[in-house]
Write a structure and sequence with these properties.
heterodimer, A: alpha+beta, 2 domains, four-stranded antiparallel β-sheet, about 15% strand, B: alpha+beta, six-stranded antiparallel β-sheet, elongated
Amino acid sequence: MFQHLFKLLWNKRKQNFLFLAEILVSFLVTFAVLSFITYYYQNYRKPQGFDYRRVWAINYNSGGLSKDVDSIAVFYANLHKALRSMPEIEEVSNSSSNFPYSNSIMSTGLTHNGKKVNHVYNYNVGEGYDKVWNLTLVEGRWFQPQDAVGKQRNIIVNETLKKAIFGNGSATGELIGDYEDKEKMKIIGVVRDVKANGDFHPAGNAMISLQDTGLLKSTSNILIKVRGSADARFESELYKFMTNAVKNAVEIQHVDEMRVSKNKETIIPMIIFIIISVFLIINVALGLFGVLWYNINNRRGEIGLRRAIGGTGSSVSYQLVLETLILATMSLIVGCFFAVQFPLLDVFNIPTSAYIIAMALSVIFIYLLVFTCSLYPAKQASGIHPAVALREE
Amino acid sequence: MLKNYLKIAFAVLKRRKFFTFISLFGISFTLTILMVATAFMDKVLSPDYPDFKRERSLYVATMEYKNLKEGWMNRSDVSYYFLDHYVSKLKNLERMAISSYVKSSNAYVNNKKIVIEYKYTNADFWKVLEYEFLEGKPFGQREIDNAEKVAVISEETRKAYFGDDKAVTGKYISADNINYRVVGVVENVSKTLHYICGDMYLPYTVSKDDYNRADLMGSYNAILLAKSKEDVPKLKKEYDQMMTKVPIPGDFDRVYSNADPFFVNVTRRIAGDGSDNGVNESFTVISVFTLLFLLLPTINLVNINITRILERSSEIGVRKAFGASSKTLVYQFIVENLILTLLGGMIGLFFSQMAIYLINSSNVVSNMHLAMNFSVLLYSFIACVFFGLISGVYPAWKMSKLNVVGALKSQ
């Protein structure tokens, strides 16, 4: 049956060329949309790795502070003491400007055994950083004050970076080189992945190092974890306190609001893309419906003949639907050939599993679409009375 | 003859209402999306409040250091020192508007937090750009020389900070614990003009940054005003020549900075860098995307059109038997298709008005008001005609090749 139908359709392929082209382009559009949705969904399902609630970021201009290493160390020690003494504040930590959900990116490269790893997000933080975010360590330990002094730099890497370099082995105690393999740093711990770029993007490679006193003069961000009792009145008092302390512009941001903005950057383009694709597909569905209906109407003579010889109504509709599905298959094979290039060429850094799932879902969707569009015309065809159809000659 | 074609076209459309509906749905939806996209691009690219002197302006936004051997690059906004020391000395320059990029600060009014985005400007900023003052006036060179703590605020800030008070000139607004005296209130600027948009404008001498530090990179951008439109190429050439004499900092071997017309400034930021203005890439990407987007509706429309032609094969056969040439038939069919497309275009216009209204009221980009002005309508009309032509040519050609005898026989 299949072979017979396939031969018939292959003979008529020129006639059906436009139909095939339409299915091909619809498949590619569906594949593109579903790839992104699958990728974002996969990332969304991964755990956050940190607690962003009740964290405030104090960003300030450090231009007016002392440049002397010792006096600035004293300044920050006093500042932290004053902040911690406020009843509404639970934890305090300095941070580099690229904390989670900020729009700042600092990245570097690392070398291990001659192999370079690029795009490693580089965080330079104060001691209390893990308590502010509730970071979890899967190996090793967090920083201690003595890690800031001493000749060798100690760093903490995240799970993704550990897997990239060491596979399933342990990373604690290993030495790793910086971008030019000049300075060797020791890994003292591995932290659980943090989705710092928003809920829909992977954590990427990350390394954390402890701020030493030399870097204090360029610090311009302090992160605090506040208790539930912190409200707008407390915020304005904190603001006055900070502007008096740094004698410069201060901005206080709520990290949960920053997370909403960051997620919007992904969601809004995605929604626009989806709306446009849905309308395109509706367009295609209506077009297919009309064309199929017209084509089937043209074959009244052939259908009438089949019924006169003894074919049942349902076998006629079955055949028509099957024909349309086979046409769709011819198109989908070409479509899959194009789609499979994406994971093979590793475009857009999206994992292969997302592409495969998207391809499978798109194929199923196109089959459903074509099946639904051909159902009504096929049913109409099965109602053709042989006597009436044959008489129309 | 055209009137006959019109009559035939409407008769055909009325005959198969379902096909007509499908075609109109597809066309109007495609054209709605194209029109909204055109309105958006028009808003971003054409002169908009308060930047009306775009014809004779060049925009300076970035400073880039490159080390070609190692592949390093450092890119940032330009510094005040660079603009003051090098750019202000250009002979073809009439005036220069300098402003910093916005920084955020907080103000706390009635236990409510307001985010204020402030920027520092020079005195000529107000002469180059045509802000509309609802109250007061801008600060001038005297206030800048004295580093007076004065501010011009936007209407939105006035409402958020002072409530419904309409006479706030002379009052004080407190940001970073400093009290600035309000000297003027301006109408809101759309955020699409991100290089000059702000909630509060301050004299640059009030800035606590050392704006005189001898560094080429900073946080400022400039609009260079030439004396006339014809002087713009001269100004650009002089700027490029000046850049060859700028000292290159230690680790790098090239310095890039460009004074571009507005559109090139946008493409350079999105798709180019110091040495490549990104115009070609942007055009290519936009054209490819538009064509891909149009591909599906076009194929659909071509499919439907061919179906409808095959239906009318007997009519065509009769006309050919009576002596109509292929050319006449092709012409007739394309006219019919254009009528259908223009009809779809009008429906699309209605829908795009609704879509624009929704976008404006949802305030996705703050203070951006899209509008259907004449140029948008013109581009939309061209898009309609283009769309009608490409979806009509192939079916028309097929129709004209129909065999007369075969067409007349298959009754």
